[in-house]
Structure formats: C-alpha cells, structure tokens
Amino acid sequence: MSGKLYALSTGPGAADLITVRGARLLGQLDVLYAPAGRKGGDSLALSIVREYLGEQTEVRCCHFPMSADSAEKEAVWNDVATAMNADVQAGKQVGFITLGDAMLFSTWVFLLQRLPHPELLEIVPGVTSFAAIAARTQMPLAMEQQSLGVISCTAPETDIRQALHHHDSLVLMKVYGRFGRIKALLMEAGLLDCALMMAEATLPGEQCWRQLGEVSDDQPLPYFSTILVNKGVKG
Question: Quick check: 231 and 191 in contact, CB under 8 A?
Fold first, then answer.
C-alpha cells in the first residue's frame, strides 16, 4: 500500500462528535502525530481520539510553541512536516489530529504549506467549536439573509469594531485573556444582549454565560472560550 497522510479534525471535544470517516481512518493508521500544548504534556486532541486508535498505531506527540518567536515556530513546523513526509514516502498511513476543523485557525495549515505532495494527502473536516456552541445553546449562527463573520479576538480593535458593525451574526474566537476588551466593544455596539459566551464546549468543564453584562471583566476563563453574537436574537 502506498503511503498517505490524513489531516483528521477531532471536533470541539466530545469523542462522539468525530466524523464516522475520521474514526474509521484513525483505526487504520501506522503513525499518528498529536499536538501537545507543552513539552511532555498531555494532548487534548489525543485524549479525544484515543478510543479509535488501532493497536498498531505509533503515537508521536509534538509540542508546538505558543510563542511570538516566529523562527522558533517555523522550525517546529518544518521539522514535523519533514517527519510526516518521510513516513508517507516510506509507505506508511500517517495521521495528524487537530481540534475543531483542520482548516480553521489551526496549526495544521502551517504544516500544509510545507508538504510537497498534495496528491498523497486527505483532509477530513470536523465540527467547529462554534457550531457545537450554537447547537448546545440553541442560538442560530445565521438566519435567512443574515451575514456571518468569524474573527479572532487577537485582531486589532478597529477590525473587530467593523465586524460587529457590518455582520448580522459574529463568532468571536480566542477570547481568553481578552474578555474585558471584547465586552467593552460589545457594549459600545449595543450588542451585549445579543451575545453569549461558552468555554470548553462539549467537554466536562463546559461553562456558559448568557448575560455578558453581568460577567466581570476579570472573570477567569478557560483557554477555549468563544463568544457568539446574533443581532436577530435577544438574550
């Protein structure tokens, strides 16, 4: 069998939200690359998919530094991409797992840019965190003629302000460490009553806040925290 690389989206966190296709492919892998938040630390993505792995699968955890040092990050991306490509060229079935969807705010896209053989690659999509939040809170992402915007809270305030003005519905990702600033922008736009926030959606530590005006600016939040805004829905 010729080698192949699969980018496998794990979904938002609950193990049973992986796609059927993703689960089937996980059971066939020779090698699985799993991102870890810190050196020697556990991999959340790996904990989600572990029950689907075959006994033959070799797991390799990779630490991707969350650093402002571009050279440090690029060195890791280069090393991991080179290692995965070598395994594929050796005829192995190789997987890389990533939270949410592989093509949205994911480390995977930086590896994709470094892979030389797209014909030996398959990307398996997944349930996004905000799709899970919308389902669990029964808050529509977009309705009828509404526009939907997805923006990172790491963006400049001017960009976030413009997005709040131009879109009917908005997903604000990467809220962790920035809630006070985002809350102020929502208040300025008169949208606090149209917004909710969820952290660790579908995981055991899931939390939801529907009245953001009552949430303290310094409220401790988990890393995976997201805000949904829909101007057609009042809390």
Answer: yes
